[in-house]
Design brief:
Helix content: 40-55%
Order of helices and strands: HEEEHEEEHHHHEEEEHHHHHH
Structural class: alpha+beta
Distance between the termini: 19 Å
Radius of gyration: 21 Å
Length: 374
Amino acid sequence: MTVELASDVRRRAGELSHGGQEVEGPLKGYHNETYAIPLPPENALSQRFARGKYRAPRPGVLWYDRRCFASEDRLLLALQGRISRIPEVVEISENVFVQGFVEGRPLGGGTLSGRSLSTHHEQQLGQLFGELVTFGTGALGGVPRTDCVPGDHPRSEDTPTAFLNRLIDFTLMQVYDENVKVYGTLFDGLGASRDALEKLRTPAELLGHRPFTLVHGDLHRHNFIVDRAGDLWTIDWELAMIGDPLYDLATHFHLMGYSPRAERRVADLWVAAMETAWSGESTKGWEADLARLLAYKRVQSVFTDVVRAAKVLETAARGQEAPGRTDGNWRVLRAARKVRRALVAARVPLGMTTVPTLTQVRTVFLNWLRTSGV
């Protein structure tokens, strides 16, 4: 993000709030530069929200996941009244949007990974599953799409096998191939080979048949906001797509770290949602298919976590890191811990007999830093 863009986005946020003295931000976020702004009385959202959210894409940001829709805001407009507790959106002028800012706390705020949801929030998650799976392949045809790989748009004859193969294609092309020249020694040193991704195509052929539906694509703790009434809102729909609805459950489990008992309860909610919206055949073999999708998510996370960690270390080595702790050894150790956790989770689909120790992972990163020229 350049200083000039940050200034432009911040200035525009101030203009939309008619003053800008109370603009908050930039808020935490990878893909966008985002500000919370007071809403002027004439804004259509001001009757229901005290503040709005204005954002603009950060230039040059890499996407590590497939997307289906070109505009989160236009998707949210299409979902109003059809999905409960999502941000409301108004278009201020052509392609300039403001979202209602949901006041509250992230579900992850102050909680440990793996903590179960409350009964109330489980019920609201089940409601979300039930609403998502009512959207068939053509239900959102009017929302602009984006191209990730050739043939990426879903078709009525698509299958979960084709869907998973497109996910694998995206990770191969946009994560591995785009980065192997710079980070190939890291991939190799950590045992994350291109072949591990290609081998996921074999279990993909075993996936059963399910109707394609709307998929949020990123259902984790920080994309759920608990409002002041204790209700659960779902935000950040940028990775939404039309695809295999079981992918939402796989992604959710991968990111939430539930206990087996909590996983069972949430899985029952998803199964009930599918069987209500579609026939009982839509959940046939779902447990085996869930394991196959989880294998992909775990392998994908190794590659994306390696690239993200390396980019953070590169930025720090070039003296461009944000103000804060600048202990290089601490930063490498933090990167090694995160990547090793991903390796442990992906051990089986990566074909590892043993997982590198924390010291070994740290050494791989240190050796790469010494030889990379950053």
